[in-house]
Amino acid sequence: MSDFGEGIGTAIEGGLLGRTLDRPQADAAGEAHAGPSTCANCQTVFTGNFCPECGQKAHIHRSLSAIGHDIMHGVLHLDGKLWETLPLLAFKPGELTRRYIAGERARFVSPMAMFLFTVFAMFAVFQMVGISAPSDITEGFMDGASGNSVVKSEVQKQITDLQKERDGLPKGDPRRGEIDNELVGLNRVLEAQPRSAVEIDTSDINVTGTGIKFLDEGIIKKWQKNPSLMLYKLQSNGYKFSWLLIPLSLPFLWLMFAWRRQYKAYDHAIFITYSLSFMSLLFIVMSILSTIPDGSDWAALLFLIAAPLHLYKQLRHAYGLSRFSAFWRFCVLLFCTQIVLALFLQVLLLLGAF
How many beta carbons lie within 10 A of that of residue 239, not counting itself? Predict the structure, then answer.
């Protein structure tokens, strides 16, 4: 399957997962019914557009257009709640977090549903634009025993030595002709080396192990044997277990508000989940920007501005903090983010090895 096809499949998978966690409430999408109706699902007699017992619509569509509507609505969740949520998530994240915690649940897409959809959509876009783990890393690159770069280094060293020897010989010396022939052959060998593999100079790398048996056998040896597969596992597990970022981040945020009893662990979890959802959307925009000429610079600039500004605004307005109180927590949170990412990477390494 092509990267584009895999990307579409990943986005659909994320939409369906998000949909299961965010069951839509009754809205005005159904057609009005003047009199009582009998629910075709549970046989309840009711008046209105939706059954009060099971939630099924009173009007049952039997057309091809209804199938298309169900696909767009069920997979992409294109309903009023999405358009209510996205502007606030992007520009007023603190207000969105505070209102959802306060009880405005039916108006907005739930944090976990938004998180699942945006994360899967992010990795789908990554696949579409060609951002993925390299699959052509030479096996054995960690032990220094093989690798195209090692061969190239040896050939280049021989060429340099022969050139120095030839320069030191007097003109007319028959040895100069022999050296020229050798240089032609070595240059052909150098040009024949495959260039598709990632060039990693491993001549100075000597992996002896950690002394911990399960780490040496489970992680280091597998990285030495097939680094491309391990990188693929990291990428694959990255989005499958991205939800682990929420419990990993929760203790750090809780500690910053430990003396403020009005804020519960649930409030912090909502904050983290919406924040991660925005970051996924930001990475989607950045990856699309990087495909245009000179877009990488604009993408980097967008990240440097939008990511810290969004985090500061959400922190200040979600918890009702003063500028100073929000700023010092923002600085601490930036440092804690590095710790969370390091812990998450360690978890992915273990998952990929075992």
Answer: 20
